[in-house]
Q: What sequence folds into this?
């Protein structure tokens, strides 16, 4: 009888130990679960901040956006696979959290579409911002070089220029070969300054001024040679892209930040 009692007590103790282990609360598991939820929120906020920094031109490339988005996806998958449970939450509470994370994943998918649109618009804008000053400098340098032969050609022939200058001074002043280029050089440089100001602070007040100057340059373009026409065409195209894409990027950023 005593041996039977000892066996029964041992079985009862084993059952109690197994039951206690099954329902034991591990604070570390709960902390891991809560930490994953907090990281999901912090990464989402960091993604919004990175989008803002990228739109302001404070990032060299779009790699940080890709890394943060990938981390968000991994954490969301970690929370919805069912492998991680919060011991301090009831079954219904854990199910509510799982559904909330799944809804977050759906919102994140829509957010990613807006971010991809933002990235494409930002890539086009950055390309124009990089090449626009180069195109302006190329045009201005070409204008300076085209005017230099007119001053060097009389120096190579010292005898004939004296009577030519006396006879053709007024005509040369009225229709010189480089007259279309000399006024356009300062105008193109002024366009560069205006567009640069707009890139730093895209205020609507700059747009009419830029548009007026672009209209003047469009009218003068037909008076240039083929190479200079193409050079000026690129300048005008880059300037218009910068103005147009900046507004599109602002709209994309607002769309990204609007997601809950």
A:
């Amino acid at each position: 009888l005593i041996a039977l009692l000892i066996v029964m007590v041992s079985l009862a103790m084993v059952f109690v130990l197994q039951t206690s282990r099954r329902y034991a609360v591990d604070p570390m598991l709960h902390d891991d679960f809560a930490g994953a939820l907090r990281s999901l929120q912090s990464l989402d906020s960091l993604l919004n901040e990175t989008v803002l920094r990228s739109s302001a031109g404070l990032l060299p490339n779009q790699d940080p956006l890709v890394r943060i988005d990938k981390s968000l996806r991994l954490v969301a998958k970690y929370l919805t696979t069912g492998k991680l449970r919060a011991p301090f939450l009831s079954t219904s509470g854990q199910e509510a959290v799982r559904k909330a994370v799944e809804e977050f994943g759906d919102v994140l998918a829509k957010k990613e579409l807006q971010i991809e649109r933002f990235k494409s618009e930002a890539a086009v804008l950055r390309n124009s911002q990089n090449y626009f000053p180069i195109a302006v400098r190329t045009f201005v340098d070409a204008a300076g070089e085209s005017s230099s032969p007119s001053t060097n050609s009389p120096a190579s022939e010292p005898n004939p220029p004296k009577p030519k200058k006396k006879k053709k001074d007024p005509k040369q002043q009225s229709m010189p070969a480089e007259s279309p280029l000399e006024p356009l050089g300062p105008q193109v440089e002024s366009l560069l300054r205006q567009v640069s100001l707009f890139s730093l602070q895209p205020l609507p007040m700059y747009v009419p001024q830029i548009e007026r100057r672009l209209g003047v340059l469009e009218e003068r373009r037909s008076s240039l040679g083929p190479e200079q026409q193409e050079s000026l065409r690129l300048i005008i195209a880059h300037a218009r892209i910068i103005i147009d894409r900046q507004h599109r990027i602002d709209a994309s950023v607002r769309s990204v930040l609007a997601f809950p």
Remarks:
- The CA atoms of residues 80 and 102 lie 7 Å apart.
